[in-house]
Each structure stands twice: as structure tokens, then as C-alpha cells.
């Protein structure tokens, strides 16, 4: 990862979030194996989904920032800006 890319996000924060998600997934596996109620499992799955969406937003923001920087250097920035906007809409 280049220093420019690191400036757009806190890598340590993202890694921490992913490790927490990993632990949550293991917890759900354990819940399923111990035959916990589906309602409890579903609550944990929803929490995982929300945490993963937040990671996707962070990474998406980094990607958008990269695309905008590339657009500033391009002769015709239109396509790069369109791509950044499309990505923003998909992860908003």
C-alpha cells in the first residue's frame, strides 16, 4: 500500500474491524453447532452484516478518493468521476 493510499483510511482500524467480524463469524458457527435458537443466530448474523457493510464503506471511500486523484491527473476525467459516483451510489 502506498503512503497516498494509507492517507485515505486507517488501516489498523479496518484490520481491527475485520478481526472482530472474524470472531463474530466463529461465534455464529459455535452457536449453530450448539443448536442455539435461530432468532439469536439471526441477530448475530445481522450484526456481522452491519459490521461488514461499514468496512465496505471505508474501503469504498478510499477507492473513490483514489479515483478522484486519478481523474485530476487525467486529460478527460469524466469516466473516472462517473466511476467514482457509481461506486458511491452502490455503497452509500
TrEMBL record:
<dbReference type="GO" id="GO:0003677">
    <property type="term" value="F:DNA binding"/>
</dbReference>
<dbReference type="Pfam" id="PF02583">
    <property type="entry name" value="Trns_repr_metal"/>
</dbReference>
<protein>
    <submittedName>
        <fullName>Metal-sensitive transcriptional regulator</fullName>
    </submittedName>
</protein>
<dbReference type="GO" id="GO:0045892">
    <property type="term" value="P:negative regulation of DNA-templated transcription"/>
</dbReference>
<dbReference type="InterPro" id="IPR003735">
    <property type="entry name" value="Metal_Tscrpt_repr"/>
</dbReference>
<dbReference type="GO" id="GO:0046872">
    <property type="term" value="F:metal ion binding"/>
</dbReference>
<dbReference type="InterPro" id="IPR038390">
    <property type="entry name" value="Metal_Tscrpt_repr_sf"/>
</dbReference>
